[in-house]
Specification:
Rossmann fold; seven-stranded parallel β-sheet; globular; alpha/beta; 18 helices; 500 residues; single chain; 3 domains; 20 strands; Aminopeptidase
Amino acid sequence: MRVLIRADASTAIGSGHIARCLTLANVLRKDGVDVVFACRRLPGHALRRLAEQGYIALGLPERYPQAQSDPGIETVLPWQADIDALADVLKDAPRFDWLIVDHYGLDARWENAARPFADRLMAIDDLANRPHAVDVLLDQNYSAQVLERPYAPWLNDDCKTFLGPRFALMRDEFQCQPIVIAPRVKRVLVNFGGFDAARQVHATMLALQGFEDLQVDFVAGLDNPEWDAMSQLAKAHPNWRLHALVSDFFALMQQADLFIGAGGGTTWERAALGLPTICISVAHNQALNARLLAEAGGQLYLGPHDALDPHTLIQAIALLRDNRELRQSFAERSRALVDGRGAQRLAVALTGQGLSLRQAGERDAGLLFDGRNAPHVRQWAFNRELIDRDDHLAWLARSLEDPQRLILIGETVSGPVGMVRYDREGEGVDVSIYLFEGQTGVGWGQSLLSGGERFLRRHWPQVRVIRAQVLADNAVSISLFQKAGYTSAERHFQRVLSDE
């Protein structure tokens, strides 16, 4: 499978688009996917960074004819010029399976013109202000989850959407335990993105000068316009450390008691850690999500940077420094929104067609034994007792010889993900399904059911009804079967197969 990602980074745009696409690319690469990036050579581009991480990174021109002279974060690109540049660097490259575009300056015109490059298209957006012509759209912001159908005017009816922080693109380390909320803030982390064009690290330094007892890490980004002034301030405060970049930002976040920063890419990283936050938006596209998250009790939002009174920031720091209860509340409410597995969910959605199913054999005895006895499986089984190994081996031997039983193993290039079993009686079958340890919660259940149904049609074409029995309080399985097209029939779910 091959994926092309079209995204840009620059001192004006920031690095957030590349950062979240890179997170998804890393997950896809683990699943055996070849990922290629295409980025403009803007000041502060990420081409070298991508190449150092082992990706092919194709450089597009810095400027196009008729382009605006100030390429800001929402500047509209001449879409045809960008398509022509992309075609030029791709030349005779084979067609991609997916093209992912993460760019506020490109819309449905570009997406329609990009169809010759890939079988399917996905857009990453969080503005909901322009039309798209894609198969899949991701908006990982809380605003997309709580607002009523924000993309309804901008998408085709058949576009699949992934909306909300459940799908936030985050690195694996953020599937973690929360930080401990201290009685009093001792350590603060300040960061406003990879470039900090709004100069808010310096502004926050000035606000923190009166808090001599706090240890503060300032991550100012590359080529910060206030670097000299910040260096002088840091030298005058022994408890302060000023960084251009850090190799382990996650570790700094784990050590902090309070975060002061923007409403961009680190929002959901902070939420996953339960790191209490004072948020100041530094771009138009951050404001709505930051405000709604604050209204939900997930953080303290002070508004846009260009309208912020410095004394308001000082008061906010003083408020949270000694208020453990408020910081604990922020942590709990923000963590309830995100679990850090969004990138895996998107990878499953993109590579689900790469799931292969095969009939189980004797060599799968250990895999199925461990899978059936896993706590997350036994919790919702009709028989919750541990299965004895000898009993299991005898059951498997009988099952493999039973012409009315079909046991399928779902696999990807990374290994097995789950089992689906069909027991036939006449024109109907009963289905059982479970996922193996570490594979739950990212969408493999849907892929297993749909793949199993295709296998079933070939193996037993005379079958017309699939039945599934589910415990009444098993909300996850009920949702799984409902989404797969099953309807409730008395005390079980069933799906009637068409003749297609």
